[in-house]
């Protein structure tokens, strides 16, 4: 957890103020029992009213100073802790944004959400406690012991017995609680995973009537987390009765032995009362430490998980000296490319070589799992190749910055993803400063106008989270419009026409030809009808190229392509 405290550097002044103020508050608290003993032993015994008023007024001033210090210090500690949480969340989010898809798969989306929210909140809460107690608790404990010994050294032997018992109880509880707190965070991840799957897959769950099954899954994860939480809370709950027992028996012992010493004349009544207060201060400082032992183990488990996110080095990084390619535009070349997913026994794609040029439409077709989506994911460098190279405009993609590389590409993913906002906002996601005319033109090309015209507020109509209020085909068309509005050098369509009817598909591809006449277009498709008119068709099978050429050429030379076409089209359509 100490590693995370580097994010406190911008808040050095508030933190320093907190430490100084709590130091003053602790000194004031330690001074009050002495003043009280003076009133009892001097003012009350002698009946000196002016002395009582004088010392009483001083006590009020000291108490007021203590209260003001606590209020200001609490404000400053909250300011520093919330700022720390804000900066840490920002850093974790930025780090996650730099991850490659491999790191996302490795940690998991549900776990990343938990780490960015719940885990950081745990650390933030403990930081507030640390700042409020790291000065006052040790100061009160050490100062209380010194003051108690100064009042009566022999009576202080009571504390020699009580403090080790209390410390041992805190230690035992902490040892038993730490592993359970770590387990709780893992089980919270699992609960979030089940909940996220249920919320995102609610249509499938209802369609297959699996509501009872999913309820059982959620209840199982919920019970698992609840059981661990109850177990750890039982352990922690045992701490408070032990503390109260030790404190009360300590008070009884002080009154018993202190009364004997007062009776013998070895101690004043006021000193005994002050001694009781100092003993309570010592005990309460240990109670504060016990609270820290309750919170710190859980925060430590959270801090480890946060550090895992921050310490994970993304596999894909920008080169130290990036190259730019401004002389040529839209050229893509695969040179003997091989790629395997981490842990896979066989390469997803192997020995891939081909080139793409501006003004040409290249299509990739193949069976499920043949490596089509994997192949095009290598161009924007979502993954890095194992061997070979991919050149964009004559430069290896690994020698370009990710920003400059992706600025050249208009990518339409297989699963259309929309964001909360208006229709226009979702199209402008491809180009933030796009003018209204550019948005309208992209929408017309992508055949978005057909359904936007029927919406009540047109381009100002709100798209709900994930595009839940539009159909699959409408989502695909909006995704295509988002890529078109940025007018890139290279267009990549990853099976982006699968949800369109044949009429809309034909109209869209016809409009795309006019819009992308000077650009490089790469289309991945399952439908033979979508790729028939492409200038070049690449046929993949088991991650390898088994055919390349035009539609007519492949019908003669590639058996895999013939099988795909004959399974989808009639003889008249093939001809």
Can you offer a commentary on this structure?
This protein has 575 residues and is α/β, with parallel strands linked by helices. The protein folds into three domains: 2-311, ABC transporter type 1, transmembrane domain (ABC transporter transmembrane region fold, Up-down Bundle); 328-408 and 490-500 and 519-575, Rossmann fold; 416-487, P-loop containing nucleotide triphosphate hydrolases (Rossmann fold, 3-Layer(aba) Sandwich). It is built from 21 helices and twelve strands. The chain has a six-stranded mixed sheet with strand order 6-9-10-3-11-12. A four-stranded antiparallel sheet has the order 2-1-4-5, with no helix packed on it. A hairpin with a 2-residue loop joins strand 4 and strand 5 (395-396). Helix 4 (109-133) packs antiparallel against helix 6, helix 6 packs parallel to helix 10 (269-311) and helix 9 packs antiparallel against helix 10. It is elongated, with a radius of gyration of 35 Å.
Rg (CA only):
35 Å
Q: CATH H-level name of the largest domain... which superfamily? A: ABC transporter type 1, transmembrane domain
Q: Sheet bearing the most strands, described?
A: 6 strands, mixed
Strand order of the largest sheet: 6-9-10-3-11-12
User: What is the number of E strands?
Assistant: 12
- Judging from the principal axes of the Cα atoms, what is the shape? elongated
| Mean pLDDT over all positions | 84
CATH architecture grouping of the largest domain: Up-down Bundle
Distance between the termini: 69 Å
Q: What is the CATH T-level topology of the largest domain? A: ABC transporter transmembrane region fold
Summing up helix and strand content along with how strands pair, one would put the structural category as: alpha/beta
Treating each run of at least 4 consecutive H or I residues as one helix, how many helices?
21
Q: What percentage of amino acids are in beta strands?
A: 5-15%
